[in-house]
Amino acid sequence: MKQSLFEDILKIAAAAAVIAAAFPDLSWAQTLKTSVDEVKTGMGNMPVVLSGLAYLAGGATMLHGAGLLKKHADNPTQNPLAQGLTRLGIGGVIAALPTAMGWIATSLKTEGATRTPFVPMTPIS
User: DSSP assignment, residue 114?
Assistant: First the structure.
């Protein structure tokens, strides 16, 4: 199986070399720069998406912790208190990540740095 895998990789590499030699315009790095610039432009909203994911994950973890605390209140001998409190704490840490990362970025800001890695979500208008 290893031999056939190596042969397949060799065939694909040879085909790519033939295509690159036949169509040199497709393989110029100039188009690579435009592609990278497009990806950088498209990733401009990623801090907002990551902040939203952190808030959702933190909220879900805290809700699970609240459910575990309710189970503990209903039956304290079967369900330990530490599980619910731990989940609440971890959820709080996850939800606070965007704010903490923004604080770290502003406190370590070097000259010319204007953007923070995480942007807090604003209300939808």
Answer: -
